[in-house]
Amino acid sequence: MYDLIVSGGKIVLEEEVVCADIGVKDGKITAMRELPSDCAAEVIDAQGKYIFPGLVDCHVHLNDPGFTWREDFNAGTSAAAAGGVTTVIDMPLQNEPPLFNLNAFSKKIGVLSGRAAVDYAFWGAALDYNIDDIKELHKAGCVAYKIFLGPVSEDYQTLGEETIAKVVEEVLKFDGLIGFHAEDYSIIKGEESKFFNKNNCGWRDYLATRPVSAELTAVKNVIALVRKTGVRAHICHVSHPDAAELIGSAQRCGLPITAETCMHYLIFNETDLLTKGPLFKCAPPLRAADEQKKLWDYVVNGVLSVICSDHSPCMEDEKDVSRHGIFGAWGGISGLQSTMQLFFEYAINQRGCSPTLLARALSANPAKIFGLYGQKGAVKVGYDADLVIFDPNLLWRITKDSLFYKNKISAFTGLSGRGLPVRTILRGKTIYLYGGGGTVFYDGRLVTPES
Fold first, then answer.
1. Scanning 63, 65, 347, 444, which has the fewest C-beta atoms within 10 Å of its C-beta?
2. 388 near 431, Cβ under 8 Å?
3. What pLDDT, in 10s, does the model give residues 36-86?
């Protein structure tokens, strides 16, 4: 007897789409074959729809505990569920305190208990004062460690070469993963200095302070570090095809480097920032239109093997240039809820890619990179029954009212397309039903490579 059978759908695997029923028992997938409908407590008819593995968004800032006026786990994970995301990996900054030791880890677990709609894992901090804590954070379950090479908010730190070497030495002891915000600090600060005494700075001035050279220099430095030490590295939010080409060359040489990009880099370009303003401010910044189009090539060929949101929310007035200026306005884009529908529209509908690309880039690959594969990231017997029933024909338009974020603002508002998650299932339980009143609360759990 099964707890749940999902029948009649087209199951999207990493390399093919198959037709089968899915049997679920105790939160796990236990069968994938034709199943009689009278042997389950619940049967969901997925006829005419795709069944994707639940998405793993490996780069979110949910600000909890700490900066919860921007976002919190209740709102953020509700948005995740509505977008087909069943596991989020939360960044260690924009937390109070940053996730830098076991006390901070325990505090975060306590605060989040009973307040998550989806499962979650944590990035650990890599700072100049927590080198000795990194191994214990690994034992507690942190799946990666975040280093900023470029400027960062006051609650975190940019690391220099000496401290990075110490972090690498520590992480190598357990074959851990380091994620890099890859922009060069000295280049950015040098460019910013040119605008200190300039009145009425504009968006072209902001773009000038975040040149492509800053990203390329940082990526080259990460590659050199990996070549020298063998540490596993993950390049966050790649914005430019030249950076992707450097990463692809390193991968072809066998270096253990992976990389991600985000839908805002694949859809928008610098013209959107120049004409529409602060909702489109992010770092690295949006690039030129021809460069944005070329970035898709590296998603399709697998160099940029992960699509994530880099969900970086804020209050609306934090984007107000009249109050904060071009450089002080918040730099970040909210996209956690929209990644799946956007990728389906722009990759599958418009570019003719196979739905299997979505299953790899948004589920399997992040699960593999961050050590969660085997539990998460695929529709396979023995895996958690994290499933997204997806209607490929349902038309949508992103509006403020459709967003579950605490602050219902996003650069993606106004976009439209075809194909939408209509039911999200976490470990065999429906947590979101399109048109059914929104997110159904379910107590998400911490998930770690060891659990």
1. 65
2. no
3. 989 999 999 999 999 999 999 999 999 999 999 999 999 999 999 999 999
Closest CA to 266 of 179, 350, 170, 210: 350
Per-residue pLDDT tens digits for 319-336: 999 999 999 999 999 999
Confidence of residue 199 (pLDDT cuts 50, 70, 90): confident
At residue 59, what are phi and psi to the nearest 5 degrees?
Answer: -150, 90
What are 427's two structure tokens? 């470990």
Q: What is the 3-state secondary structure (H, E, C) of 235-266?
A: ECCCCCHHHHHHHHHHHHCCCCEEEEEEHHHH
Query: How many CB atoms are located within 10 Å of the residue 201 CB?
Result: 16
Residue 215 near residue 240, CB atoms below 8 Å: yes
State the DSSP string of 151-195: ---TTS-B--HHHHHHHHHHHHTTT-EEEEE---HHHHHHHHGGG
Cross-strand partners of 262: 308
DSSP states of 333-365? B--TTTHHHHHIIIIIITT---HHHHHIIIIIH
H/E element, 85: strand 85-90
Residues 334-357, mean pLDDT to the nearest whole number? 98
User: How far is residue 308's CA from residue 262's CA, in Å, rounded to a whole number?
Assistant: 5
- Count how many residues are written for the chain: 451
Sheet holding 21-25, edge to edge: 28-33, 21-25, 2-7, 40-45
Q: Say how far apart CA 43 and CA 41 lie, in whole Å.
A: 7
Q: Quick: pLDDT tens for 125-165.
A: 999 999 999 999 999 999 999 999 999 999 999 999 999 99
| Distance in angstroms (rounded) separating the CA atoms of residues 92 and 157 | 11
Pick from 201, 169, 164: nearest CA to 182: 164
Mean pLDDT of the chain: 97
Q: Which of 164, 126, 93, 124 is nearest to 332 (CA)?
A: 93
On the question of pLDDT at 343 being above 70, the answer is yes
Residue 35: which of 48, 50, 25 has the closest Cα? 25
Residue 271 and residue 253 in contact, taking contact as beta carbons nearer than 8 Å? no
Q: How confident is the model at residue 25, as a pLDDT?
A: 98
**219 and 181 in contact (C-beta within 8 Å)?**
no
Name the percent of the chain lying above pLDDT 90: 96
Distances (CA, A) of 248 to 300, 330, 434: 12, 31, 39
Q: What's this model's pTM, rounded to 2 decimal places?
A: 0.98
